[in-house]
Amino acid sequence: MRALVINCTLKPSPAESSSDLLGSQMSTFLTDKGVTCDSIRAVDHVILPGVEKDMGEGDEWPSLREKVLDADILVFVTPTWLGQHSSVAQRVLERLDAELSETDADGRPILFDKVAVAGVVGNEDGAHHITAILFQTLNDVGFTVPAQGCVYWNGEAMHTTDYKDLEQTPEKVSASITTSLTNAVHLAGLLRDSGYPAA
């Protein structure tokens, strides 16, 4: 089984990032479960605006798209800015829109039988709002979301402590990583063995 973590931080590598930390923690959990896990920091790549599979010269999305298609589980991680998901996350979601018109040999959307979970971090409110947007969008293009399929952390309102600044991972976050990813691996295995029928 394969997983892909897409980290939608605004900070290019090698800058420290709370989103990167959460994504790494989720990746480690999956690896410990025997899942082969790959990670990309989307901002490090040229992802041109648009809703096509390939937006032409200089567009690096086609190679990233292949990683999405190769994965059984997508871990979509975004920071919270002004109560919203990042602009990088929005760009990735828009590029996934192209998959609405892609079908397999049975006429099913090409992302059927794949699972998506979300990770959201920020020192302000917004995690539930962002998760709702991510789940609706990812489900629209064909992903299945497992029970309690989100991991999030919100810092104290009006303070500046980031997730990466914490001395240890909060117990509730660790528990959410365990629940969401255990469910994701279980669901991905079921869908791999017996996928959705053709409509």
Automatic annotation (TrEMBL):
Residue ranges constituting the NADPH-dependent FMN reductase-like domain according to the UniProt record: 1-153
A Pfam cross-reference name: FMN_red
Name of the protein this chain belongs to: Flavodoxin
Coiled coil feature spans: none
Lineage: Bacteria, Bacillati, Actinomycetota, Actinomycetes, Micrococcales
